[in-house]
């Protein structure tokens, strides 16, 4: 059984992609009861593969493609699943009972959509005044961008992040789109909803939380904003360098496309590195590189020397040796490499997951450990509508009601495949 | 002000970004955070930028942003006298956050009451056990272990990090999430818990890593630069006065885009309906002229009206002047007599019961400014505090 900190907290999810669903999985890891109300009959966005011939997100297996997409699996563990058309009269009745059951409702539609669907805060609190409702629209629930839509790559671009994380000489179109907000917004909203539950203990009432993803990601980058607002400078791409630290770089290693990060943040670390490279003179008083000022002046020359050195070594072995000397050093891992980490294995971090349509997989583990009640992967990502019957019975619907809903295609457990 | 986390008292140990970002999430919403700092102020206070490029221990942007609303207490806990103070301080705390090497955490936990003391969260690069537990890492070397540097880069070119310190911020966020979880649990089931966040595991186990994709499907992510040319258009594209980012490679957004740029015929063109992966250059003969003709704000407004996922690529100046940010008061001007005025991000979320855009960013404390008050609060007399100061235990 997983951790029990949030035991008794009921979460209803009507959210798409990652920032909502992944946070709900983390709530599940913490012990909350999470019910995912999955879009039906339209597929969830994370179940939408492109052409499977070229879409790298689809795992090999026998079942429907929409059950074999990694973007869906990773954000949906530790939940039950009901696939429901929430736009229908019967679907509204199911939602109404779920809202009465819930302590938390998580939605991630574009601003305004949830109101148009009839599930705005004014309606929700009429059904359950104690519930916390979280909205995750990218730009929040008000303002001139009301209703606009975007994935995490857009918030990264608008927060100024896309312009600073590239190669120094490249133009922005070379920048790889990343989804940093999808990784970090869930962590913020967990604090928000538990904070709201704490507020409920004082007031007896639930809260409405408006989290604009662009604001949360901007909160995380004080360096970008303050470089401008304190000193009128627009930060430029600095790749892996640090203006105040040399060496601080990603260097080539032996092997194809292998790399190692090395940094010496203090004179002492630099002394150890120079000694390791059999150049003690670089750190002796009088040598220009013995001081951080001299090292910054000769950044390129030093980086070239280190690069010549590191090219001869395997990055994992070299990092082991440098770390033993007290130097910051880490190999750059390609996707298969974590499986070779003695640290991750020693900590039993990986999880073995079984699934009806995919051969057994060793997946990445949890974001934290907790004593005495460790998180566990009690429920793999549910198949679409896998728990329809259980959830509806729990909400007081009869077998006849459920059969009628299935007959009218209000609930379901399969999607129409658009591509095969 | 009535805030949701008013009832929580947190002790933060460490002087780095992750712990500070963690407890900042709590202090923004009313928690009392007592930050135990070393005499030299530690790393966080030394990270640039500084106002007018004049460095000082109390004026770094990261310190001012992430230590806002906290109390600063200097204690050297390497001595028994220091540990005795910590033992008393724990009695004030509901939650303790450690951002320190494992050996220091072990020492600090040796004076923690394991029965009735507060719950704890330990933040370390690799965790509290295992062969790498004593390794020292920074923002970028931690990221290197998570496959995200690999995913952020182009094949055979140098792997790339994210914004400086952002990995440590993410790790701090992770500690905040589990921290509030164990606080809630402790409050309700009376079970004291010890959580630990390994920075590598926190990022590697999250979404958006190359590992997640590979371990599930066996496919390595494509590392071909910003604009995917098989599943397009997605990525950053130049326009008349800058850049925009598009995410319109899948339906319904692809169809909407084609209609919005005035080329619905693309949707019936076999090059794009059957063989899209081979025809990126042909597609750009339609999209390219539209982008060249229009500026980023027009494209943002026009394509969004058609339901296309697009956003302008902004720099910090653009962002502060963005109409949405102004309307929502997303950034707060800090009036600072000593350091001069500047802006920081405001509240990361708004809760209708407490802070509808009335969020106030509290000042960050000067190093050690609360030492005397906090020691007095836990029962030390004036003479005892003087003795501890003279011994170099507090400052």
Instruction: Give the name of the CATH superfamily of the largest domain in chain A.
Output: Crotonobetainyl-coa:carnitine coa-transferase, domain 1
Strand fraction of chain A: 5-15%
How many individual β-strands of chain A? Answer: 12
Would you tell me which CATH topology of the largest domain in chain A applies? Rossmann fold
In DSSP terms, counting alpha (H) and pi (I) runs of 4 or more, how many helices of chain B?
Answer: 17
- SS-based class of chain A: alpha/beta
Task: Detail the poorly predicted runs of chain B.
Answer: none
Silhouette of chain B: elongated
What is the assigned CATH homologous superfamily of the largest domain in chain B? Answer: Crotonobetainyl-coa:carnitine coa-transferase, domain 1
How far is the first residue's CA from the last residue's CA of chain B?
30 Å
H/E element sequence of chain B: EHEHEHEHEHHHEHHEEHHHHEHHEEEHH
- Biggest interface and its residues per chain? A-B, 157 and 163 residues
CATH class (first level) name of the largest domain in chain B: Alpha Beta
Order of strands across the widest beta sheet of chain B? Answer: 3-2-1-4-5-6
Summarize the structure in short.
The complex is a heterodimer of chains A (420) and B (395). Chain A contains 16 helices and 12 strands.
Question: Secondary-structure map with pairings?
Answer:
The complex is a heterodimer of chains A (420) and B (395).
Chain A: E1 10-14, H1 19-29, E2 33-39, H2 70-74, E3 80-84, H3 89-101, E4 104-107, H4 113-116, H5 121-127, E5 132-135, H6 152-158, H7 180-203, E6 208-210, H8 213-219, H9 222-231, E7 248-252, E8 259-263, H10 267-276, H11 292-297, H12 299-310, H13 315-324, E9 328-331, H14 342-346, E10 351-355, E11 358-363, E12 369-371, H15 388-394, H16 399-407
Chain B: E1 9-13, H1 17-27, E2 32-37, H2 61-66, E3 71-74, H3 80-89, E4 95-99, H4 102-109, E5 119-124, H5 139-144, H6 148-151, H7 166-189, E6 194-198, H8 199-204, H9 210-217, E7 234-239, E8 242-247, H10 253-260, H11 270-273, H12 280-293, H13 296-305, E9 310-312, H14 316-320, H15 323-328, E10 331-334, E11 342-345, E12 350-351, H16 371-377, H17 382-390
């Amino acid at each position: 059984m997983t951790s029990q900190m949030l035991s008794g907290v009921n979460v209803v999810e009507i959210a798409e992609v990652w920032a909502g669903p992944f946070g709900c999985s983390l709530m599940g890891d913490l012990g909350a009861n999470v019910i995912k109300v999955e879009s039906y009959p339209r597929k969830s966005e994370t179940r939408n593969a492109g052409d499977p011939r070229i879409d790298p997100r689809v795992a090999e297996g026998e079942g429907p493609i929409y059950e074999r997409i990694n973007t869906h699996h990773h954000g949906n563990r530790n939940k039950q699943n009901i696939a429901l058309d929430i736009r229908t009269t019967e679907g509204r009745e199911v939602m109404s009972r779920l809202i009465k059951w819930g302590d938390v409702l998580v939605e991630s539609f574009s601003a305004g959509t949830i109101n148009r669907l009839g599930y705005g805060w004014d309606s929700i609190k009429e059904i359950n005044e104690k519930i916390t409702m979280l909205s995750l629209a990218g730009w929040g629930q008000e303002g001139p961008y009301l209703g606009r839509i975007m994935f995490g790559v857009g918030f990264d671009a608008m927060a100024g992040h896309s312009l600073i994380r590239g190669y120094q000489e490249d133009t922005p179109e070379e920048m790889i789109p990343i989804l940093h907000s999808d990784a970090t917004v869930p962590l913020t909203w967990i604090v928000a909803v538990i904070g709201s539950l704490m507020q409920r203990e004082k007031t007896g009432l639930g809260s409405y939380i408006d989290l604009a993803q662009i604001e949360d990601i901007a909160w995380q980058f004080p360096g970008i904003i303050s470089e401008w607002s304190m000193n009128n400078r627009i930060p430029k791409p600095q790749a892996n360098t640090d203006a105040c630290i040399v060496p601080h770089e990603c260097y080539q290693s032996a092997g194809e496309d292998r790399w190692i990060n090395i940094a010496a943040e203090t004179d002492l670390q630099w002394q150890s590195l120079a000694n390791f490279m059999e150049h003690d003179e670089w750190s002796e008083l009088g040598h220009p590189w013995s001081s951080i000022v001299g090292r910054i002046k000769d950044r390129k020359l030093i980086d070239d020397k280190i690069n010549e050195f590191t090219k001869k070594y395997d990055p994992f072995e070299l990092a082991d040796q440098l770390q033993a000397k007290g130097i910051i050093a880490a190999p750059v891992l390609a996707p298969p490499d974590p499986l070779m980490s003695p640290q991750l294995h020693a900590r039993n971090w990986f999880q073995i997951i079984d699934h009806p349509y995919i051969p057994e997989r060793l997946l990445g583990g949890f974001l934290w450990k907790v004593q005495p009640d460790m998180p566990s992967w009690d429920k793999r990502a549910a198949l679409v509508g896998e728990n329809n019957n259980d959830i509806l019975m729990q909400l007081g619907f009869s077998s006849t009601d459920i059969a009628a809903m299935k007959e009218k295609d209000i609930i379901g457990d399969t999607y129409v495949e658009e591509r095969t | 002000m009535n805030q949701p986390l008013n009832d929580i008292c947190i002790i933060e140990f460490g002087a780095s970004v992750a712990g500070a970002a963690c407890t900042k999430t709590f202090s923004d919403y009313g928690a009392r955070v007592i930050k135990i700092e070393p005499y030299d102020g530690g790393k966080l206070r030394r990270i640039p930028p500084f106002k007018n490029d004049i460095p000082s221990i109390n004026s770094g942007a990261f310190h001012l942003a992430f230590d806002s609303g906290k109390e600063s207490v200097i204690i050297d806990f390497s001595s028994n006298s220091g540990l005795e103070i910590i033992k008393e301080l724990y009695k004030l705390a509901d939650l303790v956050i450690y951002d320190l090497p494992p050996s220091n955490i072990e020492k600090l936990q040796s004076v923690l009451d394991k029965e009735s003391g507060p719950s704890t969260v330990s933040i370390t690069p690799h965790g509290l056990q295992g062969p790498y537990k004593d390794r020292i890492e920074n923002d970028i070397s931690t990221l290197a272990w998570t496959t995200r540097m690999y995913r952020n880069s182009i094949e055979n070119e140098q792997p790339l990090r994210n914004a400086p310190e952002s990995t440590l911020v993410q790790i701090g966020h992770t500690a905040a999430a589990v921290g509030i979880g164990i606080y809630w649990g402790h409050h309700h089931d009376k079970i004291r818990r010890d959580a630990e966040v390994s920075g590598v595991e926190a990022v590697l186990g999250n979404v958006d890593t190359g590992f997640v994709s590979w371990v599930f499907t066996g496919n390595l992510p494509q590392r071909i630069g910003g604009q995917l040319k098989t599943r397009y258009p997605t990525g950053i594209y130049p326009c008349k006065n800058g850049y925009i980012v598009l995410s319109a490679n899948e339906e319904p957004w692809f169809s909407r885009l084609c209609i919005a740029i005035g080329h619905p015929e693309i949707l019936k063109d076999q090059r794009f309906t059957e063989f899209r992966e081979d025809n990126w250059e042909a597609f750009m003969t339609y999209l390219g002229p539209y982008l060249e003709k229009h500026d980023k704000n027009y494209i943002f407004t026009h394509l969004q009206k058609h339901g296309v996922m697009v956003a302008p690529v902004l720099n910090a100046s653009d962002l502060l002047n963005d109409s949405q940010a102004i309307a929502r008061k997303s950034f707060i001007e800090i009036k600072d007599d000593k350091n001069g005025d500047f802006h920081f991000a405001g509240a990361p979320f708004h809760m209708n019961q407490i802070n509808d855009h009335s969020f106030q960013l509290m000042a960050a404390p000067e190093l050690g400014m609360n030492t005397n008050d906090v020691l007095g609060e836990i029962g030390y007399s004036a003479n005892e505090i003087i003795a501890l100061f003279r011994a170099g235990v507090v400052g």
